[in-house]
Amino acid sequence: MMQALEGVIGYSRMRTILVCNYKGGVGKTTVALHLAWLLEQARNPKKDPLPIGAVDADPQGSLAKWYARARSEGYTLPEVQLVSSWELPSRLGKMAASFSTLIVDTAPTFSPAVVTLAEKADVILVPVTPGALELDAVQSMRAMPGQERMRFILNRADRGRACREVRRYLETLGPVSELRQYSVYRTASLEGAVVTKLEPKSEAAVDLRRLAREVLS
Ligand SMILES: Nc1ncnc2c1ncn2[C@@H]1O[C@H](COP(=O)(O)OP(=O)(O)O)[C@@H](O)[C@H]1O
Ligand SMILES: [Mg+2]
């Protein structure tokens, strides 16, 4: 992978994970925060001396607020950067020296800067919740560059037929990871906590750790 290149050239290349969907409330911020936490936990400082960074490109600042709360609760997370989308390209360039991986959470609106970032991002994560309107939003994501680097996250999944059908459809577009629906997500967001620390043995935590492995694979 890209680590091989680093060894040869001797500089670290920041990996970028973009989390996007033009639809709101599908789990972008939830996914961004949990991935940042899990990847930071899994990081081997000898191999990857630079931490996992996060950028909040949604002016609502939900990720930044969650991070601030989590940090005050004792979570060891590097400070999240709140960046307006037009600033993204220049700010990401500057951050490349400080982070091994950068997770970018985005607003549920079309933004040319996010489209540009999709051209370069190593992984594009598209959380989707099962429903007709959400599928319309997936259709509009089809116009994004980087389709071959896209992974869909079927979020708030249940055992219903609608959910199975959405999954089948998503599988025709790219790899799919699943996060089932659990109330612990809400508790975590209310408390500024992460699910895997709040309830490490829960099925929600199992889903999240699987997602982190799938994203890294
Ligand atoms: N798998 C899940 N199960 C239950 N609730 C979830 C799940 N994923 C997200 N949520 C909840 O859904 C709401 C929207 O999630 P959020 O990450 O803020 O979406 P977005 O960033 O796309 O707007 C939040 O209240 C969050 O706690
Ligand atoms: Mg959000």
Describe this entry's structure for a reader.
The protein is of the alpha/beta class. The protein has one domain: Rossmann fold. 45% of the residues lie in helices and 18% in strands. The protein contains 10 helices and 7 strands. It has helices at 2-9, 28-42, 62-72, 88-95, 112-120, 132-141, 161-171, 184-191, 195-198, 203-216, and strands at 15-19, 52-57, 81-82, 101-106, 123-128, 150-157, 176-180. The protein has a 7-stranded parallel beta sheet with strand order 3-2-4-1-5-6-7, with helices on both faces. Strand 5, helix 6 (132-141) and strand 6 form a beta-alpha-beta unit. Helix 2 crosses helix 3 (62-72) and helix 2 crosses helix 10. The longest helix is centred in the first third of the chain and has 15 residues, at 28-42. Mean pLDDT is 90; it is low at 1-12. Bound molecules: adenosine-5'-diphosphate and magnesium ion. Magnesium ion (MG) is lined by residues 28-29, 58, 62. Magnesium ion binds next to helix 2.
Which characteristics define this entry?
217 residues; alpha/beta; Rossmann fold; 10 helices; 7 strands; disordered N terminus; binds adenosine-5'-diphosphate; binds magnesium ion
Write the layout of secondary structure elements.
Elements lengths: L1 H8 L5 E5 L8 H15 L9 E6 L4 H11 L8 E2 L5 H8 L5 E6 L5 H9 L2 E6 L3 H10 L8 E8 L3 H11 L4 E5 L3 H8 L3 H4 L4 H14 L1
Parallel strand pairs: 1-4, 1-5, 2-3, 2-4, 5-6, 6-7
Helix pairs in contact: 2-3, 2-10
The structure holds adenosine-5'-diphosphate and magnesium ion.
